[in-house]
Design brief:
Layout (H helix, E strand, L loop, with lengths): L1 H26 L8 H7 L8 H14 L4 E7 L12 E6 L6 H7 L20 H7 L4 E7 L6 E6 H6 L4 H7 L3 E2 L4 H4 L16 E8 L12 H15 L8 E4 L2 E2 L19 H8 L3 E5 L8 E4 L15 E4 L3
């Protein structure tokens, strides 16, 4: 019985392999290094911890392109009356921008003019496409260099997968075209957002249009929660650049968030100032295990410091009896 089941499984496996090989042959145009359609689907599951880390990839690119301001804006379809959940997310910057041909390369995995560059964030050209498809099935990159005009390339995962075996179709899909920004992005910015895309001399806009993955992430899809979490995350990882580099999410400026509470301009620093002043005059004793019999040694006047991350320690903090 067991032998029969194993034989049946083997036959099914071989038949499945034959069908798969035949399907690939029918697609034609050779194979190359990867199966492009499967590669496109697989790259969507690279494993960013959350949307903030994915969007930070695009922020890194903006700052490496000498952007002084980056604004993340939420867009809504006309039928979205409540505007509780955004239909679009746009990452806008005033960096150097890209020439039209470079946009078509930048949306491809490995497409970068900074390969091997160790002076900035990226070196391999995987950040933009990987982060974009981890959140959206369709996205458009608009860009203009100084003294240039807006051009755009739209990436649709389904369309690219269908054309994966046809190099001419793939090339046509990823070719840059003259473009104008969507009307909602050209409206007057709100709140702390001062990035005027109408008068921008150069820059890039990455518009995530079909947020299929983001819509499935609990705790991230609502505009309010998305804004709050992005501001917190960006405040931590870009704390040394703020406010020299301006980051705005849905009209609200990001503030530095220092996990060690050492930066005077960081968020919460004023609230903790009275705690620092109190501790500066307090007398504390740290009880440490003694190597010799008879108890432990006392270390007088040891001033503790607040950290935002959990710290596990076997020592005990005890206030001085005085």
């Amino acid at each position: 019985m067991e032998a029969t089941a194993q034989t049946t499984m083997t036959i099914e496996t071989i038949d499945r392999q034959r069908r798969y090989v035949q399907e690939q042959k029918e697609k034609g145009n050779g194979l190359g290094v990867v199966f492009a359609d499967a590669f496109l689907r697989g790259m969507r599951d690279l494993g960013y911890k959350n949307p903030a880390w994915a969007l930070a990839e695009m922020m890194d690119n903006a700052f490496q392109a000498a952007a002084g301001s980056v604004a993340i804006r939420f867009g809504f379809e006309r039928g979205n009356k409540t505007e509780v959940k955004p239909d679009f997310v746009a990452i806008c910057d005033d960096g150097n921008g890209m020439i039209p041909e470079m946009i078509g390369y930048a949306v491809r995995w490995g497409g970068t003019d900074r390969e091997g560059d160790r002076k900035g964030f990226g070196r391999y050209g995987y950040g933009l496409p990987s982060s974009a498809v981890s959140l959206a099935k369709r996205y458009t990159v608009y860009s203009k260099p100084r003294d240039g005009e807006w051009h755009a390339v739209t990436v649709d995962i389904d369309e690219l997968a269908a054309a994966a075996s046809d190099l001419k179709k793939t090339e046509a899909l990823l070719s840059p075209r003259p473009a104008t920004l969507p009307e909602w992005l050209l409206q007057a910015p709100k709140g702390d957002d001062a990035l005027d895309l109408n008068s921008l001399k150069s820059g890039t806009v990455i518009l995530l249009e079909d947020l299929d993955r983001l819509r499935s992430m609990g705790g991230w899809i609502k505009a309010e929660s998305l804004r709050t979490k992005l501001l917190q995350h960006f405040g931590v990882i870009y704390r040394h650049w703020i406010p020299e580099r301006r980051i705005v999410v849905d009209g609200r400026g990001a503030q530095s968030v220092d996990p060690l509470f050492l930066m005077e301009h960081a968020r919460f620093s004023t609230r903790l100032q009275y705690v620092r002043n109190a501790w500066r005059h307090a007398s504390w004793r740290l009880r440490l295990p003694a190597e010799r019999p008879g108890g432990c040694e006392s270390v007088p006047r040891c001033c503790p410091r607040i950290f935002s991350m959990p710290i596990r320690c076997s020592t005990e903090w005890r206030p001085s009896p005085s």
